[in-house]
Amino acid sequence: MKKSEQLGLGVMILLGVGLGVVAWQWLPAARRPTASIGASERGFDGMVRIPGGTFRMGNDFSDRSEIRPAHDVTLDSFWIDRDEVTNRQFAAFVQATGYITTAQRRGWSHVFDRQKKRWVECAGADWLHPGGPDTSLDNRDDHPVVHISWFDASAYARWAGKRLPTEAQWECAARGGLRDADYPWGTNRQPDGRPRSNTWQGWFPDEDTGEDGHRGPAPVGAFGPSGYGLNDTVGNVWEWCADWYAADYYDRSPIEEPPGPDKSDSRVCRGGAWTTPPTGSHDATVWARAGREPDFTREDLGFRCVHSE
Q1: What is the CA angle 20-23-26, rounded to 5?
Q2: To bridge 291 with a disulfide, which of 99, 125, 178, 266 should be the other Cys (CB 3.0-4.6 Å)?
């Protein structure tokens, strides 16, 4: 090939690359690929990219007023942990920082007593002893960390260079791109006749039959991912969000990037848990919400984190 031909070919290649970059920049965020290409190089290992856009939040058909009205919310794209933060990950944080959790400092946390069939304040229960002082993390490295307060979750998130999700980010990610769905996979709780999440199976609080394969928290990812590739957004453990909680917030929530109320007594929890009955309750859905005091800790409460682009 002549030098003049080589030069012309080089110019064409450079023009092609330049036009490709321009085209990507103008491509709407909601239509860009959602796969986490290059995630490890950007520090987003184990995270999933949620494309920016508008989604429908809440549920007009719920009999619980805090879920209404359903309303449109517009968010920028963001990254969110594929899984709930595990005992292994939290242990790395504690080893690096010497952090002591709320439950450890207080000396007790809430545990579900299967004999008494109710929640009790259990001395010695904490993230290292999830079922009480006589239990340990043996064979639980990949289980979600529990007995975590909002303060504990926030401290971990800062250490990891992340933050807790806003309530709107959490619901957008949990819905997996589906509109007017109750679950990450659709509107049917068990579309194939089998449990699709880790919830209480049986009559609560009398008996958990373990039909879903677990009597207590399950390892993260034990059930198939949602449309966005997230695991366990419904069931397994409740998850802390960044927002303060107010039952009437949807009446005044802004359309773009709602931050939650300015102040209240509680922080938002989402997703339900292994203690949530799969029927007769609205807690194990993508739109259900609850409020807990930020120092609250329990055997079915954990978290996951987000990162802005």
Answers
A1: 155
A2: 266
What DSSP designation does 143 have? S
The tokens 């504990």 sit on which residue?
Answer: 152
Burial of 246 (0-12, 13-18, 19+ CB in 10 A): buried
pLDDT tier, 232 (very low <50, low <70, confident <90, very high otherwise): very high
Place of tokens 């009437």: 248
Cα distances (Å, whole numbers) of residue 118 to 113, 168, 242: 6, 31, 28
* pLDDT at residue 32 tops 80: no
Strand partners, 93: none
Cross-strand pairs, 160 = none
What is the rounded CA–CA span in Å between residue 107 and residue 16? 63
Q: Please state whether the peptide bond connecting residue 205 to the residue before it is cis, i.e. omega within 30 degrees of 0.
A: yes
User: Tell me, what amino acid is at 174?
Assistant: A
Looking at 3.90.1580.10, 1.20.1740.10, 3.40.190.10, 3.30.420.40, the CATH number of the domain 41-308 comes to 3.90.1580.10
pLDDT value for 281: 59
- Kindly report the pTM of this predicted structure: 0.84
70, pLDDT greater than 60? yes
Q: Give the total residue count for the chain.
A: 309
